[in-house]
Design a protein that fits this description.
mainly alpha, 78% helix, elongated
Length: 95
């Protein structure tokens, strides 16, 4: 006799409203984190990510490990913002 997947069992017991609230909270938590990352790098470099890329700041700053690492983290945050906003639009509360 199989025990089954406890996470799957827990999710199956939740109502649609509970699942929607849980998903919305998670997307909002991630969105806040990504926006804070974006704001940090905007202040650090004095420009938006789009300007950073257009100006080729990584090359201008001699491809330093710090700048390349920042660029990757910033890009992930920008992508995360758009993904979270899209997912929040998909997860609507309907009663």
């Amino acid at each position: 006799m199989s025990m089954g997947n406890p996470v799957k069992q827990m999710v199956e017991k939740m109502s649609n409203e509970e699942l929607v609230v849980m998903l919305r909270r998670e997307y909002l938590r991630k969105l806040i984190r990504y926006r804070l990352t974006d704001e940090f790098f905007r202040k650090k470099y004095g420009m938006t990510y789009e300007e950073f890329e257009k100006e080729n700041e990584v090359a201008k700053r001699d491809f330093s490990w710090e700048v390349e690492s920042n660029a990757q983290e910033w890009e992930m945050a920008i992508d995360g913002i758009s993904t979270c906003l899209r997912k929040l639009g998909e997860v609507k509360v309907e009663y």
